[in-house]
Amino acid sequence: MVENVRPIAKKISELKIQGARNIAIAAIEAIVELSKVTKAKTKKEFLIELSEGKKLLFNSRETEPLMRNAIRWIINQIEKTGKKEVLKLSQILKSSADEFLKKLEESQEKIVNIGKKRIRKNSIILTHCHSSTVTKLLIDANKDGKNFEVFCTETRPVFQGRITAQELITNGIKTTLIVDSAARSIIKEIDLVLVGADAITSEGNVINKIGTSTIALVAKEARKPFYVVSELLKFDPATVCGDYEKIEERDPSEIWKDAPGNLIIKNPAFDVTRRDFIHGIICEQGIIPPHSIFELVRRNYKWIFK
Ligand code: RUB
Q1: Which residues line ligand 1 (CB under 6 A)?
Q2: Where are the domains of the chain?
């Protein structure tokens, strides 16, 4: 039943579940939940329910191609099967979801193992927002005994940087929190910038939390390496056909709760970092130049373009 998806979609839109990867995983689980309690009697009805659930999830956050790619792939397994019985379809959906989640896990393992090698002894790393992929990389590198410290931005307006800082100190990593606007003055102390991604376009530009492109600019000026840590499946196939990645505009109250009524507040959640500011994308296929993303996605995930 589509009603089962609504609470998850709400949690995603309210940022109770945040970060591209966590959002995709939660959306997959919501679709599996829907299929378990479906009232559909036929394959057609089942697909209609799935499509309504999909719509709710896609509308919960606009700038999330990993979620869209995942849900589309899973629903496509139902569309293309010859099976008709709803119980069987629901089982296929569950096993497809498990398969997708396993591949996502494997991709993350590879990303972490590749990315860790970029951390040199005693280096200082700057990160922005909360990327579960970046924090996993840092925590794993720390477990391997690498000695480094991390600066993280607080990430206004909703302070995801505090989640990053909390996770890192819990794992025994020396961590310093800075305000977003301190990035330029702190960059001289930084050896490496690592950020996550919400979306990657066909041209290799990266969409991530607002403020990422400022950090990229600052890093370029200071000649510090700036890497994006991301699964290839954050690629948005719609950008190949000319569509711009939509940038979610969030509620102004996140910036100022009781702001004067006639004040205009703009609150874009993400910004675009052009590929020429990015040293490399650390993905499951290695560290790649951003402009090669289209070719790699085409080679590894052809189904994305269907
Ligand atoms: C989170 C954010 C993260 C990416 C990547 O923004 O910009 O860097 O989503 O995260 P928000 P991950 O808090 O608005 O969702 O590596 O976990 O996919």
Answers
A1: 15, 18-22, 129-133, 160, 196-198, 208-209, 269
A2: 2-106, 119-305
**Residue nearest atom 12 of ligand 1, based on CA coordinates:** 131
* The architecture CATH gives domain 2-106: Up-down Bundle (1.20)
**99 pLDDT above the threshold of 80:** yes
Q: How many whole angstroms from 287 Cα to the centroid of ligand 1?
A: 20
175, 111 contact by CB (below 8 A)? no
Over residues 92-100, mean pLDDT: 98
CATH architecture entry for 119-305:
3-Layer(aba) Sandwich (3.40)
Predicted pLDDT of residue 306: 84
Q: What is the pLDDT of residue 294?
A: 97
Summary mean pLDDT of the chain = 97
CB atoms within 10 A of CB 188: 8
Pick from 92, 81, 76, 80: which is nearest to 38 by CA? Answer: 92
pLDDT class for 1, splitting at 50, 70, 90? confident
H or E element that contains 194: strand 192-195
